[in-house]
Amino acid sequence: MTMTKKKNIELTDLDALPDILDGKHHVVPIITGGDDVVEEVAIPEALPILSLRSSVLFPGAITPITVGREKSIKLVRDVNANKGLLGAVLQRETEVEVPSPNDMYKVGTAARIIKILEMPNGNLTVILSGLEKIEVGEYLQSEPYLKATVRTIRDSQPDENNVEFQALVDSVREVSLNIINISASMPKEAVFALKNIDSPRGLINFVCSNMDFSDDDRQALLEAPGLLARARKLLEILVREQQMAELKNEIQEKVKREIDKQQRDYYLQQQMRTIQDELGDTADAEIEQMREAAKKKNWSKQVGELFEKELNKVERLNPAVAEYSVQMTYLQLMLELPWDDVTTDNLDLEFARQQLDDDHFGLEEVKERILEHLAVIKLKGDLKSPILCLYGPPGVGKTSLGRSVATAIEQAESAQEFFLTEEEAAVYRRGRNMGHGNVPKSASVAEYRRATGMEVLFGYLSLTGQTRRIDHLFRVGYGLIPADVHQQVGEHSYE
Fold it and tell me: Same domain for 122 and 214?
């Protein structure tokens, strides 16, 4: 990328302007005159009205205006041929191609044509010198161009000893310099002009002409009744623009920091990926392992297709994004869940009562409800048992019910000795290994962890609709099904 250095060009010949007005240069309007009237010129009672799309001409300013519409071209040629004056007035809507009197503002500026430049595209660039502010009255004609009666409006001059006006001028200069320094769209060359304009009137009109204001703001400044009112309005707009410029810079700096952080993270992730490739420990290898494990799962076709779809989604993700870890956890959970595992139920209510009494002192209502639950299952035979919900504050014995089952099967932690399938054992271990808060006084840490693991397992079985499996494990834990019978029947055949 090549950088182009800005150059300040001082024009001594207006014939060089076509080379400057090529869209690649920023033209700063010139402010002539001091606090006196720029040029003593008698303004006619009627003037041709040049409609401006997006530019406001201020008294004392010399600025180029691009003219491309047929009526406007004829107007400037006629005025230039007669050495006359015209009224430069802003139109309300820039989209209007042929503005009518109702489309024009009432206040504009009388101007003299200094020079007309023929542009290669057929348009004209007209160098206008602003003279006096005018108020447009009655329109006299619309063809071949607009012409209307005008009234000269002289800007009232504040007293030279007016302290408020002096403070306003100093504030306008200071805020303008701040905006130019922090704004990328403002020409830095304007700083030199601002520092060297001694005339308050010239400074105010210079700022009005050169700052990046909206057309409505410029028109409001032009219509201000007197120089003091214009200075007040100008300072108000400048303070607003300064705040907007500071906010834009703050946002841009924040975005830049975020981009830099993302680039840094990307660079580090690429380095990590290279190291992992060298070690053979890559995310791709993990994904392939998960795909091979999925082939061994006894799930339906729909579940398999869903798993493959989500796995393909993970392959397209950058491991650095947060969604990647969430998606991997979801897929790992799918692989750990048991699918289509059944066992045989065998109920013994007397043994269940004994087991409950041995493990729990009190809790009579809860124990009776569990026995009723088991009795209904035994009587109905094919009943899909409802879910038992245990609720209450900490310490009332909710966890101890799960611990009863855990105690009965705690002889070993392997899936085979645990009377659990491989998938159920994985769910149990995940719940058991989770971080825990306060441990009840009636249980050790190990007992509480095992009981919590059983709670997580029962919750998983409930969410997957395996309520009969929950009943089966309860009966195994309470001794309703002897261990030797359970092992003979097998863990994959309960019906």
Answer: no
pLDDT digits (tens, 9 = 90+) for 341-393: 554 555 566 666 766 677 777 778 877 877 777 777 767 666 565 566 667 77
Question: Does a structural domain hold residue 106?
Answer: yes
pTM above 0.70, yes or no: no
Residue 210 sits in the same domain as residue 299: no
Q: Where does a domain end: 122, 153, 184?
A: 153
Say whether 281 sits in a helix, a strand or coil.
coil
What totals of helices (H) and strands (E) does the chain contain, helices first?
A: 17, 7
User: Containing domain of residue 462, as a range?
Assistant: 349-489
- Both tokens of residue 341? 């595992």
Q: Are 136 and 150 in contact (CB under 8 A)?
A: yes
Residues 6+ apart with CB under 8 A from 210: 28, 29, 187, 190
Q: How many Cβ atoms are within 10 Å of 469's Cβ, its own excluded?
A: 24
3-state secondary structure of 430: helix
Q: What digits encode the pLDDT tens for the residues 281-311?
A: 556 677 888 888 888 887 888 888 888 888 8
Contact indicator for 52, 128 with CB cutoff of 8 Å: no
Residues 452 and 382 in one domain: yes
Give domain status of residue 387, yes or no: yes
**How far out from the chain centre does Cα 235 lie?**
32
Residues 482 and 357 in one domain: yes
Closest CA to 347 of 299, 320, 380, 298: 380
Cα(108)–Cα(222) distance, integer angstroms: 8
- Token pair in block for residue 149: 């009666």
- 198 Cβ partners below 8 Å, 6+ apart? 34
Spatial separation of the C-alpha atoms in residues 347 and 139, rounded to whole Å: 105
Q: Which two tokens stand for residue 405?
A: 């089952």
Give every CB contact of residue 266 below 8 A, 6+ residues apart in sequence: 320
| Three-class DSSP category at 460 | helix
Cα separation, 304 vs 309, in Å, equals 9
Q: Say how many domains are in the chain.
A: 4
Distance CA 355, CA 109 (A): 102
